[in-house]
Design brief:
The complex is a heterodimer of chains A (252) and B (277). Chain A is built from nine helices and no strands. Chain A is mainly α and 252 residues long. Chain A is globular, with a radius of gyration of 22 Å. The mean pLDDT of chain A is 89. Chain B has 277 residues and is an alpha/beta fold. Chain B has two domains: 153 residues, P-loop containing nucleotide triphosphate hydrolases (Rossmann fold); 84 residues, Rossmann fold (3-Layer(aba) Sandwich). In chain B, helix 6 packs parallel to helix 7 and helix 8 crosses helix 9. The termini of chain B are far apart. The C terminus of chain B is likely disordered. The chains are: A mainly alpha (252), B alpha/beta (277). Chain B: Belongs to the ABC transporter superfamily. Chain B: Keywords: ATP-binding, Nucleotide-binding, Transport. Chain B: Pfam families: ABC_tran (PF00005). Chain B: GO terms for molecular function: ATP binding; ATP hydrolysis activity.
Chain lengths: 252, 277
């Protein structure tokens, strides 16, 4: 199948799912309180759009702030851990331990410390995205070919010069690949925090809508989240493809 | 030490040995070895695999520290005075995010005194320097390509350029052509010989290809199996520049046969000098 046909097929499948959903709800007579039809969800979105926008902005804002902080910390830690075998072996168990804690469980602690609102959402978005970045960056740096390291050392390059000229550029494809994962995770993190304890954000909007049985609005929130998630992923894939093009050797 | 003496003892191993591990797991990688390399010499180290040839190379490059003895450069202790070293391995390990020219220029970014002027000169003087070398090895048309767009032989040419760009006093080669096919390898022997005749760095070549050693070197040291020590040290006197046809000369074949006879524990496989990798 050509790439063009492939894309058409993917789009067709997505449209097909929605059409099936619409028809299934209509024909089976499913109550709107259980599963609203796509057309109703879109109608709800249009009806409430002015109310929805501030929440979208809030979620976007907390996600991005958390993500940027997480990336900075993750990159720093990754470089630190990756450039020393000792640090790598020492810190790895701790990192694995921290990363295996379900992040939802941390939200109440953040709320305890900082109160409900924006800060717990930012912190959750941050903490959830650090790990994949650390792992990828440190792996990229730690797996520099030994021959290459020998060549650099025979030139009497300092550790910093090796890191700067070889380790860091080499870990860039890993880093950008991890950004794609990290942004999606951050987004999940901030929505989780909003659902648990916030007064703003798409997660909070859905919680309130569901408590008043406005099910089409709940689903409209879900749709907005899906669109945001896909867009963020797409943006970072695009960045990845342009920044570390040498790692995707297509033009041979 | 006078000048002539300094030149004859450019690199000197004085009872240098290396032992890995401790107690029960002690492994003697290199028996105490004494060896002198004169300035401008082309020395090939041959021997069965695991005999410590590469260890000697790494000791000279200061990548390993000897556990016994000392290494001197022009009569001075290693590390006392910076010796400019160029190194190339079997895997070209060029950086994929850089062009061939940028790869070749990498040492200029790191080795003094070149590194001081790198920013200012990288588009002018240093670029010309890299281009001159690339021209010499026939890669000038590929200067702006990325490494993965080149064949294995071309990558090794670029690797040689990278090892030579900063005019090293000492060129260390660890089976640089080991992964190449016979024809490409012979082409590269000639390239390396030309570069050596041009620039006359002191070369230490580690190889298990006896024909390679006999064709390129001015002096061959044969090592015993592990724990390695030098069991034979002989001059190779064929006139230079050596044509590739030399490898069919009876004198050449006899030399190769004789070297092979010295490496007693090497299992006999394939043709003489065929890759044992």
């Amino acid at each position: 199948m050509s790439p063009r046909q492939q894309k058409l097929a993917s789009a067709g499948l997505i449209v097909g799912v929605f059409v099936f959903w619409e028809l299934f709800c209509l024909l089976a007579g499913i109550s709107e309180l259980i599963l609203p039809r796509p057309s109703r969800i879109i109608a709800a979105f249009i009806e409430y759009q002015h109310a929805i926008w501030p929440h979208v902005w809030q979620t976007f804002y907390t996600t991005m702030v958390g993500f940027v902080c997480g990336v900075a910390i993750g990159l720093g830690l990754g470089v630190l851990i990756g450039s020393s075998k000792l640090a790598y072996d020492t810190a790895y168990p701790l990192l694995v331990g921290i990363s295996s804690i379900p992040k939802v469980a941390v939200v109440p602690i953040f709320v305890l410390w900082f109160g409900a609102g924006t800060i717990p959402a930012i912190l959750t978005a941050m903490i959830i995205c650090i790990f994949p970045i650390v792992v990828n960056v440190s792996t990229g740096i730690a797996t520099v070919e030994p021959e290459l390291e020998d060549v650099m050392r025979s030139l009497k390059a300092t550790k910093r010069e090796i890191l700067w000229n070889v380790g860091l550029p080499r870990s860039m494809p890993y880093f950008f690949a991890s950004l794609k994962v990290a942004i999606t995770l951050s987004f999940v993190g901030s929505v989780i925090a909003e659902t648990v304890a916030a007064n703003k954000g798409v997660g909070n909007l859905m919680l309130i809508a569901s408590s008043s049985f406005n099910v089409p609005l709940v689903f409209a929130g879900l749709m907005v989240l899906a669109i945001m998630g896909v867009s963020l992923y797409a943006v970072f894939s695009l960045i990845e493809r342009n920044v570390a093009s040498w790692a995707m050797r297509k033009e041979i | 030490m006078n000048r002539a003496d300094q030149s004859a003892r450019f690199v000197e191993f004085d009872g240098v040995g290396l032992t890995y591990g401790r107690d029960a797991e002690r492994t003697q990688a290199l028996m105490p070895t004494s060896l002198r390399i004169a300035k401008g010499d082309f020395l090939a180290l041959v021997g069965p695999s695991g005999c410590g040839k590469s260890t000697i190379l790494k000791l000279v490059a200061e990548l390993l520290e000897p556990t016994e003895g000392r290494i001197l450069f022009s009569g001075r202790e290693l590390g006392a005075e910076p010796v400019r070293v160029g190194m190339a391995f079997q895997s070209a390990s060029l950086l994929p995010w850089m062009t061939i020219r940028e790869n070749v220029m990498l040492p200029l970014k790191i080795v003094p005194p070149f590194k001081a002027g790198f920013r200012a000169k990288k588009a002018g003087e240093y670029r010309d320097r890299a281009d001159a070398l690339l021209e010499r090895v026939g890669l000038i048309d590929f200067a702006d390509k990325n490494p993965w767009q080149l064949s294995g032989g071309m990558m090794q040419r670029a690797n040689l350029c990278r090892a030579l760009i900063h005019d090293p006093d000492l060129l260390l080669l660890d089976e640089p052509f080991g992964a190449l096919d016979q024809f490409t390898r012979e082409e590269l022997w000639q390239t390396l010989q030309d570069l050596w005749l041009d620039r006359s760095p002191t070369v230490l070549l580690v190889t298990h290809d006896l024909r390679e050693a006999a064709y390129l070197a001015s002096r061959i040291c044969v090592m015993s199996p592990r724990p390695g020590r030098i069991i034979e040290d002989r001059a190779v006197t064929f006139a230079r520049p050596r044509p590739i046809d030399l490898t069919f000369d009876p004198g050449f074949t006899a030399l190769v046969q004789e070297l092979r006879g010295r490496i007693v524990h090497t299992p006999v496989t394939g043709s003489i000098g065929g890759s044992a990798a």
